[in-house]
Amino acid sequence: MKKASTSRKLVKIEGTLHDPASIPTHVIIAEYARRGCGDRVAPVPTEEIEDAYRLIAEGRSADAMELLARTFPRLAPPSHECAIVDMLSRGRA
Q: Which among 8, 12, 26, 70 would be 20 to 30 A from 87, CA to CA?
């Protein structure tokens, strides 16, 4: 019986082979920028997402939706999203 290969494909960055799982985000973004596609990747704004969750937990879903709309400009404006969040959060104790 043959064993399944568990090896990962290594990537070459600046002449050195790396395991993709071990590469820090800032190195990946810099490599995309070096290759001329830096505008296609961006770090996820985790602080803003955490703030939005906190605002929802505090019952301030309108503020959370405004924050997310500012953070992610490609999202639709928060016209009906706020009502959806309110409806989903009503079941909480």
A: 70
25 conformational bin, left if phi > 0, alpha if psi -120 to 50, beta if neither: alpha
List phi, psi (to 5°) of 89: -90, -5
- β-strand partners of 11: 18
In a domain, 52, yes or no: yes
Grouping H, G, I as helix, E, B as strand and the rest as coil, residue 12 is strand
| Same domain assignment for residues 33 and 50 | no
Task: Give the model's pLDDT for residue 51.
Answer: 93
With H, G, I as helix, E, B as strand and everything else as coil, classify residue 18: strand
pLDDT at 16: 84
User: Residue 34 falls within a domain, yes or no?
Assistant: yes
Domain that holds residue 21: 11-40
Does some domain include residue 80? yes
